[in-house]
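Please check the following.

. . .
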Amino acid sequence: MWHIFADRIDDSDTISKRNGFGHKSGMPQAERPRFNLRLTPELKVELTKARRQSGRSMNAEILAQLKLVFEPDPTLQLAQNLRPLFDKLEEADRDTLLEHIAGAVAILAKGIRSK
């Protein structure tokens, strides 16, 4: 297992040299709670891939992933709530519904990109 301090280490296993670790949270480093975290090598690899793809530090990636657990995406919640109803539809109706949903998502994405 990898043994890391989640707020002080990056994917190269070196302690960060940056000063003012709490600059984005608004809290000085000394006031931020620390959590000693042990990871399996496989989980560390997955976090490292996600970190590189997102461009975040390892700590920021861990926090972002944890936030998803405690503050799930409302669209995911909607999909989970609609799933039982979707499963009761006949295949042709499911296909039609998916086409409409895809169209709605495309329209919403245009609105997000234009802002």
Observations:
- Residues 52 and 58 are 9 Å apart (CA to CA).
- The chain has four helices and two strands.
